[in-house]
Design a protein that fits this description.
Length: 980
């Protein structure tokens, strides 16, 4: 018998996200990441749970109601939130607080051609900049159409000069956005649009090719005239009302009396279209907006013209228009999921949708408005955007595969139900509160607008009673909203991108905390069916279906959404360019309002390939005087992570294998910590340490850094480390009893002896579990393959440059020089980057530290600087009895000189090496990479996310941020951008 799954209303009043009620007898434990996101982004004051946030939001929106009805509506709003309505992020984070922040996610702001004067309702450029800064400061993202700004080189009569063009002014907006911190401590989001017929359109298309305009999404506003010219292979004119400069006139610019515009030049429409498509194919930008279709479909085509969208493009908006958004979690309405009796509860969905319309209408009256123009625009039209989220997961729960006709039929059915319910609810509100001021029934239903296609009975009702809201529907990306409030249900209209992934979140102290993030439908299925149950055919991710299937889902739903849908069509890296172009042409022909695609490729970022290298990097050699070593190519690497980024938390303790090391100056105990292997076969070592008063100085630091190598999923890497230690020669070679029977073996020093014992124990554990030895070539070698040189790079007789610093510890009578040999590597942008490749000591120092030097030298030759940074940070707190001393702090700003106490010579050396990496622009002074390369990423399985090339992540630094589900998403650390 199928297990019941009742979530109407959703029972989370005091426990979510600690647990999710599935049935009276079954609960689904919550996810730690959901709690973390909730507390970081949405909770205020003493709020700890979803129930706390819901109560605040319900109370805030009920205050708009008549005083005698506020208690009734507060209860109704709370029930609606519990049942699955998810207001957008600004509402969740700011409603009912003392913040002077807007409840509106995004706006479109007008930009004119003048510097400061208003022209046709469009403020001058710097006035618009001020308005945008105020909007972002209050928490809103901003979209702009820059097409009114005159082209580069155009004549500026007032100053008798030439214009610099819209892209130059976009850079000013870009830097402003970078500087202004939005309410809630997030950076503002921006969308920049330029019409396809603007004379600077080619400069705009390529503006982001080399990393410019980092705080913008950009889209080309495409007209039907242009698309028809593309189809006909005809010429296309680039025009503007501003007069060209003298040079442009000499080049053939002329005034077209019929259009009342200056024609700057002509080109083949297909040539321009190919530039747009090639840039999108390589860089995932610009997007494409079909402006004529947006305006044809607009309910208010009779009183406004739309030229831009909000930053995530789900809302085409007029100047000063706003996004008042909320989504209904469809997974809450599936009864008996995954069974043959699985069913969507239409009645419950309608109840939630009706009240959600009222709540969003109340937001328009409850919010703080950054600008009076925005408030006036909202009051005259009362736009809202109700949508749904979790469609992908809901289809899986209904046993419907996303890329099938039956799934599209279900999505269409839900969309029609949402459309009809929302418009009916808005008409009811109009009876109670009055229609939006610009409502005119004859004009509203005229032409080709969305409203003209409403059912006849609904149009009759609206004609009779009016409509409270000019627009009602929008399917937006839900991003962190889904993580915090919907157990990571799939985002918006999208299918799940992956079933599980790891979220590596940077903490305030600079460290990383790792979370397992699981898709809601996947974890529910595992909960109900067991971990070993095979996934059904309905479990299909975004990357496992065709681009055509993505586009078909949008085409199925779009006719029933009055604004737009945020949807990213993901295509594989080898997707043919001709087919890629065809997606956009098909979107225009299908009447869509725009299209966004994402294709992973090497142009987008410099993350290492996931293909293992077939041949090891050879030792490097160079001749010549005073040159640094040079590497001509980067080897590819398997991206992998540590089993544990730090020592695992073991409240119940763990077993450890112990061995007494006997050497000429005394004895000490060697401990190897062990845990059950993750595959259940035997034990695996995960740390090593030494104990005893006779242990050689520096050996403990060696053990500390070797512990991190034991935690890597790379037995060959560990074997390389132990090989490096096996030949460390010290002042006194000696013989030592060796396991398992105590036969004496000669060793060149205590470091080599310690390494031999560790190798013996690792080999013994491997043999006990039935696996090959640690140095087996059959095992995966992700860290080893990520080295740019296995051996220390070899110089010619003329030598090479190096960096050296003196260390003097009077507490231990040590005085020696630390030397870093350095190598030049090609950086992501093609420029050479200097990297340390080996460290050595000369002078009076403990010889056991030669072992530490050999380990760190190998770590330095891992391409991802996160690796050596991790090793050095672990040594910063390494302490030795009576070994602390005072020394100057390196890397202080403004030339400041200050001494501090260092816990040991090793800790000071680690800090000096970090400082050198900071001097080279590789790590910061805290030891964290300024630009990671992804070597420490998650292992690939069918149910995890692959690392993909993209933009630089603001949290982890990897160039692995892609556009997923309408949001920025880091495939290395799981960071989610500003949406939802």
């Amino acid at each position: 018998m199928a297990q019941a799954y009742d979530r109407s209303p959703f029972s989370q009043k005091a426990t979510m996200p600690q647990s999710t009620t599935i049935s009276p007898l079954t609960t689904l434990p919550g996810q730690a990441i959901s709690t973390e996101v909730l507390l970081e982004k949405y909770s205020k004051g003493t709020e700890k749970t979803i129930a706390d946030v819901n109560q605040r939001v319900a109370s805030a929106l009920a205050k708009v109601e008549a005083p005698e009805q506020q208690a009734q509506w507060e209860a109704s709003f709370l029930t609606t939130l519990e049942a699955g309505f998810l207001p957008a992020g600004r509402i969740q984070s700011a409603a009912g607080t003392d913040l002077a922040a807007t409840l509106i996610n995004c706006f479109v702001q007008p930009v004119g051609d003048s510097i400061a004067h208003v022209e046709d309702g469009h403020p001058g450029i710097y006035t618009a900049l001020t308005e945008a800064a105020e909007t972002m400061r209050r928490g809103g993202g901003v979209g702009y159409d820059f097409s009114r700004i005159r082209p580069r080189g155009a004549w500026v009569g007032s100053t008798q000069s030439s214009a610099s063009g819209p892209v130059s002014y976009m850079r000013v907006f870009d830097r402003s956005c970078e500087t202004v911190e939005s309410a809630g401590a997030r950076r503002g989001a921006q969308m920049g649009v330029l019409r396809c017929d603007h004379p600077d359109i080619e400069e705009f298309i390529h503006a982001k090719d080399k990393g410019d305009l980092k705080n913008f999404n950009i889209s080309v506003g495409v007209s039907d005239e242009f698309m028809n010219a593309v189809q006909a292979d005809a010429d296309f004119c680039l025009v503007h009302k501003a007069e060209p400069g003298a040079a442009q006139k000499e080049s053939g610019s002329y005034h077209d009396q019929n259009k009342g515009m200056w024609v700057y030049r002509k080109l083949k429409a297909r040539t321009l279209w190919d530039q747009i498509m090639r840039s999108t194919y390589d860089h995932a930008e610009p997007g494409v907006l079909f402006l004529d279709q947006m305006n044809r479909d607009n309910n208010l085509a009779y009183c406004e013209t739309i030229a831009s969208t909000n930053p995530c493009a789900e809302q085409p908006l007029p100047p000063y228009g706003c996004c008042c958004l909320g989504s209904i979690d469809l997974t809450r309405f599936i009864h008996e999921p995954f069974s043959e009796a699985a069913k969507f509860d239409k009645e419950a969905f309608v109840k939630v949708a009706r009240v959600a319309v009222r709540m969003l209408d109340n937001v328009l009256d409850a919010t703080v408005w950054p600008l009076p123009q925005q408030q006036a625009e909202a009051n005259s039209k009362r736009r809202i955007g109700l949508g749904f989220t979790g469609l992908g997961d809901a289809l899986v729960m209904l046993n419907l595969r996303y890329d099938t006709a039956s799934a599209r039929d279900m999505a269409r059915e839900i969309s029609v139900l949402m459309r009809d319910t929302a418009y009916q609810a808005s008409s009811d509100l109009a009876q109670e509160r009055g229609a939006f001021p610009l409502f005119n029934a004859d004009l509203f239903f005229n032409g080709q607008s969305f409203a003209s296609r409403l059912p006849a009975t609904l149009k009759k009702k609206i004609r009779q009673h009016g409509l409270r809201n000019s627009h009602l529907l929008s399917i937006a990306p839900t991003g962190t909203i889904s993580l915090a409030f919907a157990d990571n249900a799939s985002n918006g209209i999208e299918p799940a991108f992956s079933w599980t992934y790891n979220r590596k979140k940077r903490m305030p102290d600079g460290s990383f905390k790792e979370y397992a993030v699981e898709d809601h439908a996947w974890r529910l299925y595992r909960h109900l069916k067991g971990n070993n149950a095979p996934l059904t055919d309905a479990f299909v991710t975004a990357l496992e279906m065709s681009a055509q299937a993505h586009a078909e889902m949008v085409a199925a739903v779009a006719p029933y959404i009055d604004t737009a849908i945020s949807k990213t069509v993901n295509v594989p890296a080898d997707y043919p360019y001709e087919d890629f172009q065809g997606l956009y042409t098909q979107a225009w022909q299908s009447g869509l309002k725009g299209l966004a695609t994402y294709r992973p490729n090497s142009v987008l970022g410099s993350v290492l390939s996931v293909t293992p290298t077939t041949t090891p990097a050879k030792p490097l050699k160079i001749d010549g005087t005073n040159h640094r070593l040079k590497l001509d190519r980067l080897p590819t690497a398997v991206l992998s992570s540590l089993r544990w980024p730090g020592r695992p938390t073991l409240p119940g303790g763990n077993t450890a294998w112990t061995f007494m090391v006997h050497h000429p100056f005394g004895d000490f105990a060697l401990f190897i910590g062990e845990l059950p292997a993750q595959d259940g076969c035997g034990l695996q070592p995960f740390e090593v340490w030494v104990n005893g008063a006779e242990q050689p100085r520096g050996l403990g630091a060696l053990a500390k850094t070797l512990s991190m190598d034991l935690r890597a999923n790379d037995p060959a890497w560990l074997a390389l480390k132990l090989d490096a230690l096996a030949t460390v020669t010290e002042e006194h070679p000696f013989e030592m009893p060796f396991p398992p029977h105590g036969e004496k073996r000669p060793f060149p020093g205590v470091v080599a002896a310690t390494a031999a014992v560790i190798r013996w124990r690792c080999d013994q554990l491997a043999a006990q579990s039935g696996k090959k030895a640690a140095d087996s070539s059959a095992a995966a070698t992700p860290v080893l393959d990520a080295m740019f040189s296995r051996n220390e790079p070899i110089t010619g007789p003329s030598g090479t440059l190096a960096w050296a610093v003196d260390v003097d510890n009077p507490a231990t009578s040590e005085s020696f020089t630390v030397t870093l040999k350095e190598v030049n590597l090609p950086g992501p942008d093609g420029n050479m980057v200097t990297r340390p490749c080996a460290v050595g000591f000369s002078g009076n120092y403990p010889r056991a530290m030669d072992g530490l030097a050999r380990l760190l030298s190998l770590d330095m030759r891992v391409i991802d600087p996160a690796w050596i940074g991790m090793k050095l940070r672990k040594l910063l707190n390494y302490a030795e009895p009576l070994g602390h001393f005072m020394a100057f702090v390196p890397g202080l700003p403004n030339g400041e000189k200050r001494q501090q106490t260092w816990p040991s010579t090793v800790a000071y050396i680690a800090r000096l090496i970090i400082h050198r990496y900071a001097m080279l622009g590789i790590l910061n002074e805290e030891g964290y990479p300024l630009r990671d390369m992804g070597v420490l990423d998650t292992p690939e399985t069918r149910e995890t996310t692959k690392t993909m090339a993209g933009k630089t992540c603001p949290e982890c630094g990897n160039p692995t941020v892609i556009h997923k589900d309408g949001c920025d998403f880091c495939t290395a650390c799981g960071y989610v951008g500003q949406c939802g």
